[in-house]
Amino acid sequence: MRMCELRQKEVVNICTGKRLGCIVDVEIDVRCGEVEAVIIPGPGKICGFFGTDCEYVLPFSCIRRIGPDIILVEIQEEKFLQKL
Prior knowledge:
single chain, four-stranded antiparallel sheet
């Protein structure tokens, strides 16, 4: 699968049913060429508007299923939300 294909899929947390957004970046282990984590922008500052000052860094192991238009992850959101 290509990065451009991943970026077009929406990420949903199966624990809460919440839509997290779309993948904007990935972390790759250059030694073995494997994807370590996917990066998703965090929630907006004010009611989802005016940008964000955090992001979700989701280990690839948290991905449960990749479908044609959606990626299902199983996470505790507060655990993977990081400040920029």
